[in-house]
Amino acid sequence: MPTAPHPQNTDELFQALQENDQLPYGRTRTVTAEELVDAAEQFAEPAPLAYALFELQEAYTYGSEPRKSPVVFARLLNLFDEQPDVFDERMRHMLFWRFKWVANALRALPEVPLSGLRQWLTEMRDRYVKADLDLQPYYGQAYQLAAHLGEDTLLAYELWAGRTRTRLSDCEACEICERALYHLGTGDDERALRTWEPVLAGKDSCQEEPARSVSYALLPLLRTGRTDRARELHLAGYRACRRNPSMAGEVGRHLEFCALTGNEARGLELLAENRNLFAEVESPLDLLDFLTGVEVLLRRVELLGHDSLPAAGYAGRTWTVAGLRTEVRGRADDLAARFDARNGTTAHTDRRNARLDRTPLLETLELTLRTRGLDDAGPAAPVAEPTARTTALPTSLPELILQARTLDQQGHPDGPDFWARLRTLVAARDYAHPDDPALGPLVQLRADLLAEEANRAGEKDEFADAAALHEEAAALYDDAGEPGHAALSRACALLATAEIPVQGTDGAEAKTAALTSAHASMVRLHEETPGLAPFQEARLMRLKATALGLRLQTSRSDEHVAPVFAETDVLHAFATRHDLAGQLSGALQLRASTHAISGDLPAAVTETDALLDRLKAHGPAWHLPRTLGLRGRLQLGLRDAQAAHADLTEALRLAADWPADAIDTARLHSDLAEACMHLGHPDEALRHLTRSAERELRRGNRTDAFCTYSNAAQLSLDLGRVEDCIALLDSLLAEPDVTTGELDDRLIAQLRLTRARALHTGEDLKAATAEFVALAAESARWDDDPGSHAMIAAETAVLLGESGEFGRAREAADQALAAHARAPRYDQLSNCLRELARLQAQQQGPDGLADARAFLSDAGRVADEARDAEYEAHGRSLDTALAYEHGRVNAYAGQYDDALVALEKALTLLGDPGRDDDRAGEWAECVRLAGAVEGLYLERPAPVLTRLDAAVSRLTALGHTEETEPLISLAARLRDEE
Fold first, then answer.
1. CA triplet 706, 712, 718: central angle to 5 degrees?
2. pTM of this prediction?
3. Are 489 and 477 in contact (CB under 8 A)?
4. DSSP 8-class letter at 436
5. What Å distances lie between residue 863 and 665, 674, 923, CA to CA?
6. How many Cβ atoms sit within 10 Å of the Cβ of residue 166?
7. Residue 910 and which of 262, 350, 563, 970 are 20 to 30 A apart at CA?
8. Of 578, 671, 655, which is closest to residue 623 (Cα–Cα)?
9. CA–CA separation, 615 vs 110, rounded Å?
10. Mean pLDDT, consecutive 10-residue segments, the chain of 978 residues?
C-alpha cells in the first residue's frame, strides 16, 4: 500500500524526494524511496530517476540494508554509462563517492566471495583513473578491506594515510576514526585517543560521527584513567545511536562498556530499549558486532549469579539472561565463522573472543543519576533494602511469637522482621500453633498479623485498606477474648478512615470534621474499654493526640492548638508514670510538631532539643534519627541551613543502624537536598534527591519516587548537566508502568517536558521539537488545565520558529493564545510572541516583517491585558520588552527609522539606571542597539558618539563598569569608520 500520494509530474516527484529526505532513516523512509523510484520510471526524463535512485541507495545504506544498496548503485552506474550527460557535477560527485558505500556494503555480506570484494576495488580504481580522479579514496577502501581481513594492514595503512585528501575522500571525521582504530589495533591507546580528539571534542562530525568514534573510544578512555570523560561520552554517544539499525555495532559497544564498569543493570535496560535491533539489522557485520556486545553483557550478568533475570531478546518469546546468551552465542559464533571462511583468516573469531574474554575495567562507575543494581533489574516492584537488624530471630516458635509482641509494644524497628517470619510460618500448610496459654489461641496470632499488615498499609497512605484490615483484626481480637487489642484496632481504623482523601473543594473542611468525629469516637472507646494494660492505654492516648494533631495540620486553626497540647500533656504524664519511653518520646515529638504547625518554630526547636537530650540519655535510640530529622526541618524553617545540614546528616548516619523501613530516609535525603541548595551545594543536593527517589522506589512509592526524580532531572538541567538529565529521564520513561500508562499522565508529561527542554538545551532541535509538538497535542485535551497547555504550546511555537517552520509556529501560538484566554500566562505568552517575531525577522528579513509584526501585535494585546489585570511581570515590564523587540525586529528587516523610534521608546520606559538597579544591563543594551542602528545603518555617527560617551560616563559613575564594555566597543568602531 502506498505511503504517500503518487507524484503526477517531476515537480511533485522532486518535492516528494525532498520531503522524504527530512525523515529519519528506517522502514518508512525506505519504503517511500522505493515507491518514488517506481514513480520516477513513468517519466521520460532520466534525471528524476537518477535522483530517486540516489535517495533509495541512501535509505538502504543508512537503514542497514547492505544487500540492496549495490543493486541500486548498479542501476545508477548503468545509467551513467549509457547517458553520462544526465549527470551534472553534483550527481557525478555523488556517483563516485558512493563507490565507497558499495565497498562497505559488500564487506558486510559474508556470502560475497573475497574475489568479489577485490574485483569491486579494481572496478573502483579503474573508474577513478578513467575519470582522472585521485586514488586516495581507493587506497582508503583497500586499507579497510585489509583491516577487515586482519592481513597486511601496515602496508595498506601507509599507502592510504600518506596520501593527500581529495574531494572524494571520506569526511575528516571518518578518516580520523579509521586512523585512530589503526593505532588502537596496535595497542597504542594514547595515540588513538590523541588522534580521536577533534572528533570527540565535536570539532569534526558527519552522519555517523562522533557516535562511531565515541563507541570505540570508551574502553581506551577507561584504560588510560579518563573515567569522567568516558562517562560523559557514553551518555552523549549512546543517545546518538540508540535504536538505530545502521549503528547496531555502536550500541553493542555501549552495552559492553556497561558490562565492564559495574553497570550491568543499565546494560540490561539499554538492551531492552534496543530490542528492535534483533530483527531490524540486515547487515551481518553490524549484527555480529551488536550480538558480541550483547553477549559480553549477558556473560557478565551470568557470572554475577543473575542468569535467571528477564532479558529483552528476539521477539516471539520471553527470555532469561541464560537463555538469551545461549541463543546469541550460537548466532554470533556462526556469523564470525562465516566471515572467517569467506576471508580465509580467523580475524573475526579472534576479535570476538578477545571482547568476550575482557574482565571488568572498573568495579563500579556511576554512569547515571539513577544508580541501579541487578537486584533492581527485575519487574517493577519494591526491592527490600539490606536490613540492619539488631535483634536475632529466635528459632523457637513460642519465643518468636512472644518477642514479636514485645517488640511491637515497644515500637521497636525489628518488629516487622519478626512478623514477616511468623506470617511465612503461619501460611504453611503444616503449621501447628503451640498449645501454650501464654501465647493465646491461633486467632489472636492471626489478628496480630492483620494489625501489623494494616499498619504497613497506613504507612503507605493506603488508608481505606488499612481501615478494613484494622476492623478485621478487631473482630478476631474479640474472638480471641482480647478487648484491649480490639479497642486499639478499632481506634486505628477510626483514624485511618478519617484520613481517606476527600474529593472536592471542601476537602480540608470535610477532613477536619472527620478527624473531630474520629477523636470523639476514640474518647468513647477509651471510656467503654476497661482493664487496658498501660501500653495499650498509652497507645490509645497517642492515637487521640495524633487525631487532634492531624486536625490542626489540616485546618491550621488557632482554636485547634490547645486541644493538642492538652491531649499530649495527658499522654506525657501517663507515659512518665508508667515508664513508657517510646510513648513519652512520642508525646514530646507531638508537642514540638504542634509548636511548629502553629508557627512557633523557636519553641519547637526548644522542645526538640530537650527530647534529643532525653533520647541520648534514656532512649529509645531508634527515635534519634527521626527527632534529628524533625529538628533539621525546623532549622530549615528558621533559615539556618548549616544547622539543618548537620542534623540531617547525623540523622542519616544513625538511621543506618536500623532496618531500612524503620526511618524515613527518603524524607531525610529530600530535606538534605533542600539544605544543600540553601548552602549553595547543588551537586550534593542532586545526589540526595536521587537517593531519596531510590528509597521511595524500594518502598514501592513509585509516584513519590518519580516526582523526586523529576526534581532531580530539572536540577541537573539547571546545572548544565544535560546528558545526565536526558539519561535519567530516558531511564524513567522506559519503565513498564510508564509505557503501559499506569502512572499519572500529568507526571509523565512533566518528565517528557523536562526531557524536551533538555534536548533543546543540548542543541538537538529536531528531537526537542518533535517531543514538544506531541506534548502540545496531548495537553490540548487537558480541559482542567488550560494554563499548562498555554505554556507548552508557547514553547512549541518557539521551537518551530527556530526550525524555520513559521506556519506551524503560528498555529501553535494561536493554540497558546486560546488557552491563555482561559488561564492567563502573561509572561510566557509575551516571551513566546516576541521571540517568534525576532526569529522570523532574523531569518526572513524584509519578507518576514509583516508576519513578525503580527506576532508583536499579539504580544501588545497580551501586555494590555496584563496591565488591565494589574499583573506585575517578572523582571522588565512587558511594555518595555515589547518596545525593545519592535526595535530589533525592524532593524532585522531594514526598517531603521522605525527601529530607532521603538528603541527610544524602550529607553523612556526603562528610565535611567540607578546604582543598585538591575536594569543597568537592559538599559545599556538598548543604548547599544539604538546606537548601532543610527550610527551604522542610518550613518549618523556624531550624535550617537555623544550619547555613547554620556552613557559610559553614567554607568561608570554608578559602578556598572562591565555594562560599559559593548558601548565602548561600538564607539571605537564608529570612530574608526569616520
1. 140
2. 0.85
3. yes
4. -
5. 47, 36, 20
6. 12
7. 970
8. 655
9. 75
10. 68 90 88 92 91 94 90 95 94 96 96 97 97 96 97 95 95 95 96 96 88 97 96 94 93 98 95 94 96 98 95 94 97 98 97 96 91 71 49 87 93 92 93 93 96 93 95 96 96 96 80 95 95 95 96 94 96 95 95 95 96 94 95 96 97 92 92 97 96 91 93 96 94 89 92 96 92 96 94 97 95 97 95 97 96 96 95 88 95 95 93 82 93 93 93 92 93 86
Q: Which uninterrupted H or E stretch holds 118?
A: helix 114-130
Residues 447 and 431: their CA atoms lie apart, in Å, by: 16
Q: Which 3 state secondary structure label does DSSP give 240?
A: helix
Q: Which of 911, 891, 913 is nearest to 901 (CA)?
A: 891
Please state whether beta strands 319-320 and 310-311 pair in parallel, antiparallel, or not at all (unpaired): antiparallel
In this structure, how many other beta carbons lie within 10 angstroms of the beta carbon of residue 823? 13
In angstroms, the CA 126 to CA 121 distance is: 9
Q: Are 592 and 611 in contact (CB under 8 A)?
A: yes
Distance CA 755, CA 725 (A): 7
Please, which contacts does 573-580 make with residues 24 or more away whose CB atoms are closer than 8 Å? 574/534, 574/537, 574/538, 574/541, 575/538, 578/534, 578/535, 578/538, 580/534, 580/535, 580/538
Instruction: Determine the pLDDT at residue 381.
Output: 43
Q: What's the pLDDT at 378?
A: 60
pLDDT at 355: 97
CA terminus-to-terminus distance, the chain:
68
**Are 227 and 262 contacting, i.e. CB atoms less than 8 angstroms apart?**
no
Q: Whole-angstrom Cα distance, residue 298 to residue 330?
A: 14
Question: Is residue 687 within 8 Å of residue 703, measured between CB atoms?
Answer: no
Q: What share of the chain is helix, strand, coil (3-state, %, to 5)?
A: 75, 0, 25
Q: What is the structure's pLDDT at 5? A: 66
Could you tell me which residues come within 8 angstroms of residue 136 by beta carbon, excluding any fewer than 6 positions away? 160, 163, 164, 165, 166, 168, 169
Cα gap 306→883, rounded to integer Å: 65
Identity of the residue numbered 98: R
Nine-digit cell string for 678: 540553601
Instruction: Single out the residue of 393, 407, 411, 373 nearest to residue 663, CA to CA.
Output: 411
651 CB-near residues (< 8 Å, 6+ apart) = 624, 625, 626, 628, 629, 632, 663, 668
State the Cα–Cα distance between residues 596 and 603, nearest whole angstrom. 8
Closest CA to 39 of 21, 63, 61, 12: 12
CA-angle at 14, arms to 11 and 18, nearest 5°? 140
Q: How far apart are CA 747 and CA 757, in angstroms?
A: 16
Of 910, 928, 913, 927, give the one whose Cα is nearest residue 973: 928
What's the CA gap between 63 and 65, in Å, rounded? 6
Looking up cell 550478568 gives 301
- Consecutive H or E run containing 311: strand 310-311
What whole-number distance in Å separates Cα of residue 227 and Cα of residue 4? Answer: 48
Tell the burial category of 102 from Cβ atoms under 10 Å away from its Cβ (0-12, 13-18, 19+): buried
With residue 320 as reference, give the H or E element that holds it: strand 319-320
Could you tell me which residues come within 8 angstroms of residue 30 by beta carbon, excluding any fewer than 6 positions away? 56, 59, 60, 63, 65
- Host H or E run for residue 264: helix 264-273
Q: Which three cell numbers stand for residue 290?
A: 551488536
Cβ within 8 Å of residue 485, ≥6 positions away: 444, 447, 451, 473, 474, 477, 536
* Most distant CA atoms of the chain, gap in Å: 110
Which three three-digit cell numbers place residue 86? Answer: 544526465
- DSSP at 933: I
Q: Are 327 and 314 in contact (CB under 8 A)?
A: yes
pLDDT value for 476: 96
Residue found under cell 530517476:
49
Residue 63's CB is within 10 A of a number of other CB atoms, namely 25
